[in-house]
Amino acid sequence: MEPTPPALSRGRISGGFTAAGLVAAAALLVYLGHADTTHALSYAGRLAGGILVVAGLAAFAGAICVVVDRFAGRGSKYTTAITLFGVLAVLGAGLMLLVIQTEEYTRWLWAWLGLVVWSAWALWDLLHRRRAWRQITFRRNFAAIASATALITVANFVYTQIYTPYASPMTVVLSAKIGNVRKDKETTYVPLTFQLENTGTVAAYVVGASYSLTGVNWKSTYQTSRSVKEWEKDIDSDGLTDLNAFADKPEAFTVSLGLLLAPFDYKLDPGEKYVQEKTIELPTQAYRAVQVQSDAYLLRKDRMLQQAPVGEYHSWAEKGEKAPEWVTRLLGVPADSAYVKYSVPVSYSNQILNFTRKRRHITLWWMLGTENTNPLSPLAASLVSDGEEKEPSYSESQQELDKYGFTYLSNGGAMAVL
Fold first, then answer.
1. Which residues 6+ apart lie within 8 Å of 406 measured at CB?
2. What secondary structure letter does DSSP report for 160?
3. Using N-to-C axis directions, what is the helix angle for 6-39 and 109-124, rounded to 10°?
4. Alpha helix segments (H runs only) across 102-250
5. Contact yes or no for 135/80 (Cβ under 8 A)
6. How far apart are CA 174 and CA 198, in angstroms?
């Protein structure tokens, strides 16, 4: 048997490496894209998945052509063109995934780097060593097809990653109203109406919605105006920003608070309105006024999805852990306040983000306060990476709002004199 020429041997080795790389890339891209073509939460996400599937199929076709060309010896200008197109598809997909990955580190970064490095080598091998470009006689048509494919891919990437987050904002309106208060000798009846209305075009998950009714009193009413010196004292001792000329500072006590909806249990579709009415009973003459406040945390339906059942923890059970300092500080309650904590892991709107972003969970804190101090606004929430439970800074909150539609709403409060 005659020995295999060195050039042929090197060609088969590089061909084997090229074919193996194309098959591995095809498997990864088809797996990643197939999940999005069927399960992505938006049309743009499904289109991106379809592009990855096409890239994977092109890579697999290229692997077959490498085998036909370098091992069966039946190559032609078409097999060379298909191989080159498959390598370019892997390179483009790798670069796209690498750009998406740059915001956060996950272990899949090394897979995208591998795709880019391998495809760059395969492209050099085809163009420099194999002279593939010279073997293709329809170079203009090939360049046109490759350019059009690249343009579509880049346009989809820009649309899904840059334009879409800003083009369709989530618009939900939260309101709380006090109706006509009724009194009898012993009881005052305060009717409340709460409303959540989706006035936009994007569905929203209600992570949590709460209300609190506060009774307001002030000790004395003066016939003559209080002096600026007394105002200065109010500012120095109590940090007040509302200064009354004819009354002492108002003292508030939460007389009723609760959840309007079970956490993570309600979806508000575009145009949908959720209304809830309550009547709170108070002792007559106990308070001079009442103030109602409602709050809600929302999540865009097309950005994230609840991944598992909601975990619930009561502070008075088991070890009785205290709430984080940032939660008690944000809501103005003592560090030993009682609370209920709800936590749930969430997944992203498409598989590409699930691979290129850290896993996250939402935690909702419903604060009950202490015997003598109750929160005026009982809800706090965070969307953080697994293993973290920290206060979201302003910049991080804005980033979460832009990327995932996680946001906070407050109605601003309504007051009625009793």
1. 207, 297, 298, 299, 300, 304, 362, 383, 400
2. I
3. 140
4. 109-124, 132-135, 139-158, 164-167, 228-238
5. yes
6. 9
Instruction: Confirm if 32 and 351 have CB atoms less than 8 A apart.
Output: yes
Single pTM value for the model: 0.78
Instruction: Give the separation between CA 163 and CA 154, rounded to whole angstroms.
Output: 12
- Please provide the size of the chain in residues: 418
Contacts of 378 (CB under 8 A, 6+ apart): 210, 212, 257, 295, 331, 366, 367, 368, 369
At residue 1, the pLDDT reads 41
State whether residue 339 is helix, strand or coil: strand
> Of 172, 138, 153, nearest to 97 (Cα)?
153
In tens, the pLDDT along 220-272 reads: 777 778 778 877 777 877 666 677 777 777 788 889 999 999 998 889 999 99
Taking residue 232's Cβ as centre, other Cβ atoms within 10 Å add up to 11
CA 160 to chain centre: 14
Backbone angle region of 240, left / alpha / beta, with phi > 0 → left and psi within -120 to 50 → alpha: beta
Q: Are 192 and 276 in contact (CB under 8 A)?
A: no
Residue 239 region by backbone torsions, left for phi larger than 0, else alpha for psi between -120 and 50, else beta: left
Is there a contact between 279 and 189 (Cβ–Cβ < 8 Å)?
yes
H/E stretch holding 275: strand 273-283
Retrieve residue 66's tokens.
């490498």
Least confident among 59-73, 153-167, 193-207, 273-287: 153-167
Mean pLDDT estimate for the chain? 81
Q: How far is Cα 286 from Cα 187, in angstroms, rounded to an integer?
A: 9
In angstroms, rounded to a whole number, what is the distance separating the alpha carbons of residues 389 and 408?
18
